[in-house]
Amino acid sequence: MTDPMTRIAEALERLAPPPPEAADPQAHPAYLWHGEALVAARSFRPLPLDLLRGVDGQRDVLRANLDRLAHRHAAQDALLWGARGTGKSALVKSVVGALQAQGRSIALVEVVAPLATLPALFSTLAGVDRAFAVFVDDLGFEAASEGRALRSMLEGGADARPDNARLIVTANRRHLLPRDLAEQESAINPRDSIDDNLALADRFGLSLGFHVVDQDAYLAIVRGYVQAHDLPFDADDALQWATRRGSRSGRVAWQYVVDLAGRAGKPL
Fold this sequence. Notes:
By secondary structure, the chain is α/β, with parallel strands linked by helices. It folds into two domains: 30-210, 3-Layer(aba) Sandwich (Rossmann fold); 215-263. It contains ten helices and seven strands. The chain has a seven-stranded mixed beta sheet with strand order 2-1-4-5-6-3-7, sandwiched between helices.
């Protein structure tokens, strides 16, 4: 007769979802990485690049870099840092989508698993005849050691990423180690904490800053969205929305346009 613990373990195994079936890395424009296998993104609909306002310089640099990657030329890992809602994540997806529209062989892989699984992802991508922008959105660390592990991957350690993949990371600050962790580390060894904090950011060949937009830039973003979706433009109404939200950004502009379309009874 099977003992109770064995029966419990077998019941839990039956309840556990089966591992996802690996998607063909050549077949889809975007994927999710949950730590075990590539899963095709259900819907990859990036915004057209011309709708992203106020980030022209960052757009051109990132696009040129990922175009080089798609052509198997030398390309950089990139850190996009700055204020929330300023278009960092949208820009990454839009650049990949624009390159795909031009026939470039490149896909987006969004990492939604712990960074410790990145070596397994790199092993999956290595040898595939396609370029991959490995996207880590809103990077944060639970421990300083995670930052050191990522630094090792970037600088070509044993678990370095393959030549057909580059890391594209977004964060709210350029110095990636959270302040509370930095303070804990500095209490032990101040010099090491500062070096780790700066060294990780410096391992990215591209570091692109994004900043809070002013009123004119915010209204330009709103105007671009409403024109694209055939909605009325009312600058005062758009500014009142931003005032109620307490900030001006591309994200707030899009949220306003969603509300505006809803009021007009239109889908987006």
